Amino acid sequence: MKTGFIGTGNMGGAILKSYSPVAKAAGDEVIAFNRTRAKAEAIAATHPMVIAEDIEEVVSEADVILLGVEPQNFDEVMPEIAKYFTKEKIFVSIAAGKTIAYMEEHLGEGAKIVRVMPNTPIMFGLGTTAMVRNKNVSDLDFEKAQVIFESGGITGEVTEDLIEAVIGVSGSSPAYTYMYIDALIKVGTDNGLDYETSKKFACQAVMGAAKMAMDAEESPVQLRDNVCSPGGATIEAVNKYIENGFEEKVIEGAQAAVDRAKEMAK
C-alpha cells in the first residue's frame, strides 16, 4: 500500500512521523507533498518517505490520501485533488469543520471518505483519534485508514454528529492541558525549584494521573478523593479549585471549542 500526505505541518507532520516507520516495517510506502518543501525535507531526513513534487503526484500514486492542510485552504486544494482522484482510492481528512458532505461535493458521491479528529500527541504514540466514514468505505478500507492513526495511539469510530464533541474533549484539549502544566511549573519555580525540575515533575504527575484515570475502575472524582486526607495539603488545593469554579471553567472552555467547531461546519 502507498499512503500519500498532502501537508506536513504540525498535525500532518505529527501523523507522518508516527506512521512512516510502521509503513516501512510493513513494506508499504509513504509519499508526501508540502508547498514549503523544506518542511517535508526536514521530516524525510529522519523518517522513511518519498517527497513528491506536487499534489498530482501524491493523488495519482497513493492508495490512501491524507489531507493535512488548514481548513481555510480546502477550497483551493480540493479541486486540485479532484482532478486526479479515482473512486477506488481512500481519502482521509483531518480538518475541523469540513464535513463528509463537503468532501463528497468535490470528489463525488461514490468517493471513499474518512473524516478523522486526531491530536498532536500522536507524534509520541499517545494520540487520540476519532474516525468517521461515509457509506462507501468498507471495513477493509476503514482498516487501511485506521492503521495510520493506531501507529500513534488509540482510535475510535464515532458518528459525524459527534465529531465536534470529540474536538472539545480530545482534539483541542492538549492545549488546555499545556496551560495547566505551565501553571504547575510556575508554582514550582516560585517556590524555589529550578525550571527543568519543576517541568519534569509536573509533566510526570499529569501523565501518571492520566494513566490512573484511564486504567482504574474508580471514577476520576473518586481518585481525587482518594488522594485527599482531611486537613492535608491536597484537600486544601482541591477546595480552593472548587471555590474558584475550576471544573466549571474547564467545561466552559472546552464547550467553546465545541461551539466553534459547530460554527465552522455550517
What does this structure look like?
The protein is α/β, with parallel strands linked by helices. It has 2 domains: 2-166, Rossmann fold (3-Layer(aba) Sandwich); 171-265, ProC C-terminal domain-like (ProC C-terminal domain-like fold). Helix content is 56%, strand content 14%. The chain has 12 helices and 8 strands. It has helices at residues 10-25, 37-44, 55-61, 74-84, 100-107, 139-150, 163-171, 173-190, 195-215, 220-227, 233-243, 246-265; strands at residues 2-6, 29-33, 50-51, 64-67, 90-93, 112-117, 127-133, 153-157. It is elongated, with a radius of gyration of 21 Å. 32% of the residues are buried. The model has no long low-confidence stretch (mean pLDDT 95).
